[in-house]
Amino acid sequence: MNDLSRSRSASRPEGRRLPSYFDLIEDELRRRSGGGGGAPKKPLPTKRAVPSAKRPGAGTAFSRAAGNNAVVVKVLSYGAGASSARNVLAYQSKEEKALDQDGREVTDLNAAMRSWEREFSNRKGSQDILRLTYELEKADGEDIKRALGSLAEDGFRQASDTDRTYAFSVSEGLKGGTRLHFALVIAHEKNDRSDRSSANRIPAEIDDVRAIDERLDRALRGAGITPVSRYPAEFSSGPKGLTATLHAMQRAGAEVTLSTKTHLRDRPGKSGRYERGGERRDVTTKDHKELTAEGKVIGALMQTRQPRDFMHLLLSGPANVDRDRFILAGRDFLKEQFAGHRYAYAVHNRNDLEKHPHLHVIVALRNASGKMLNPNIRDFTEWRVRFADNARERGIPIDRQKRIERAGPPPVKRWEWEMFRRMGATAPANVVDKVRAKLRDTPTAPKREEAKKRLEQSRRSVGRVILMLEGIAKDRSAPSTARELSHDLSIGLRREYGRLETAVREGRDPTREKGEDHMLRSTPISAAQAKAAKETLANTALTVAAKIANPSDRLIFEQATKIIGKVVGLQLDSRVGKNRDRTESGSDKRSSDSLETKSAAGRDHIAEQSVVNRSSNNRSLDASRIARSNAEYDAPEADRSNRERPKPQQRDRDIPKSIKLRPPQEKDKDRTR
């Protein structure tokens, strides 16, 4: 096989270059539109089948290679209650009036939420904070602090319950006495955000409240403080409930003391990490904002269960999209996907052409029949597919794709954008790198285990494809056209993949790397040769795929071979077309079924016609047999038809019974088939 580096560079006829993704896309569009050049003039049919979210296939890669943007459909938040829904709807309507599911403008937010509230559930969140209020005889704040500190060491509910967060404030009580506000987190406080256990939750039952009250009463009396009376117990839910409780305890200028083992650990160059453990830390303050900040730190590790009445959904598109068509696509998607649910949507950045247009949508999770919508990752994938389909029907080049399926820049949080905008190059190094990677759209190495696993699977699949092509190229029983094309493709793929890996390893953006021209043979071939080559590659790919035990690895390998199959099909079809043109123009008087392609040692027509090849390693015998075959096909058609083909038995007599193995001669080193 000729080395690509020694290819015949004196003349490079048109059509010999390896087809690019853009060639494949145009070919696919021509195929869909029924022929003709360029993109189809009429849009694709509106009737479509439900797309499969399990197999993104090569179509996604083609679409992304053409510059199509990945569709963005994500849930920003969930909420409960009419008040929260009104706040979300007010934010959505800051630029334009929101439209509801019937296409009517939402002019009165309060009236709209009253109609929504009838379909909201009455379920309340979990009871996470217990608040007890006492009337004491005149007492000193320091004595109360010491008594509560000893109670924290002994345990609030039982002897081992010593790690809970608590807060208290002391103010003036009735008849010259002292009023004590005491708040205790009875929800499970996680060790970190990955903790999914709930072993330390105290049920909000009357027996548990009574047990906590008795231990607190005993601790106060042990410090010489006499409780006179206690108000009814109160409960609050979630981080917001904790913050509201702290603010209520701070009224009338009282100081609030917060004692917790939860803290935010600073990490140089990285965002902070929420952790629980170690020594207790006490914070005493009157500042409203400081209490809010501390409440957020504690609430970050509080395990809570909040009701869900609605979700805040985002549909985003590229900055250069046709805004009107994008909004219509979003409207059609919402009408199709959330039929029977109340929803309202508003457009942001409709007129700002430098920013991405997007739709903010609020969707009631309970429909008119009482059925709840509980979306998960499979639903999000399906929504992306359907929204992308609606957009493509309106001529918008948007594609469905997960972040894990593409080498994209890391996500940048809002505070990182603000820090980079204000501090510039003096910002932490990790923030600068993330923002620059986002601005330049530079891919980075994956850090999540799932993404690393997917990357390794892709590497293995590329390696399998290259080994498969190299195996076909070395298989002397395979058709010569398949051997040549496999050899050229394997060299091109190995060089290109190695070049991109080097760019990533050295920190360069692989999308900005200048590619190389990997040449393929373009000599004319017959339709029979093209068919034999396609069948050889297809059958080999099926055989290799059947031997891959891991279903994920097999799926990625099949996707890769689909792209290779598209390249092979385009290349072989172009060579068949050249042969047809030569035959029609009369420049070649041989039939279209003749074998045109020649390698360095000549074409073996007998092997191409699937005749059993019984040749030996004796190159002189091979050369004589091939010469006879070529002479027969080079003869005029009349002579060829009158001449009888030698029988296989006559050829067998020329083959020696014994074979002597010998090293290749000096003159045979560069002669390959």
Automatic annotation (TrEMBL):
<feature type="compositionally biased region" description="Basic and acidic residues">
    <location>
        <begin position="637"/>
        <end position="673"/>
    </location>
</feature>
<feature type="domain" description="MobA/VirD2-like nuclease">
    <location>
        <begin position="282"/>
        <end position="395"/>
    </location>
</feature>
<feature type="compositionally biased region" description="Basic and acidic residues">
    <location>
        <begin position="263"/>
        <end position="286"/>
    </location>
</feature>
<feature type="region of interest" description="Disordered">
    <location>
        <begin position="260"/>
        <end position="286"/>
    </location>
</feature>
<feature type="compositionally biased region" description="Basic and acidic residues">
    <location>
        <begin position="577"/>
        <end position="607"/>
    </location>
</feature>
<dbReference type="InterPro" id="IPR005094">
    <property type="entry name" value="Endonuclease_MobA/VirD2"/>
</dbReference>
<protein>
    <recommendedName>
        <fullName>MobA/VirD2-like nuclease domain-containing protein</fullName>
    </recommendedName>
</protein>
<feature type="region of interest" description="Disordered">
    <location>
        <begin position="1"/>
        <end position="61"/>
    </location>
</feature>
<dbReference type="Pfam" id="PF03432">
    <property type="entry name" value="Relaxase"/>
</dbReference>
<feature type="compositionally biased region" description="Low complexity">
    <location>
        <begin position="610"/>
        <end position="620"/>
    </location>
</feature>
<feature type="region of interest" description="Disordered">
    <location>
        <begin position="577"/>
        <end position="673"/>
    </location>
</feature>
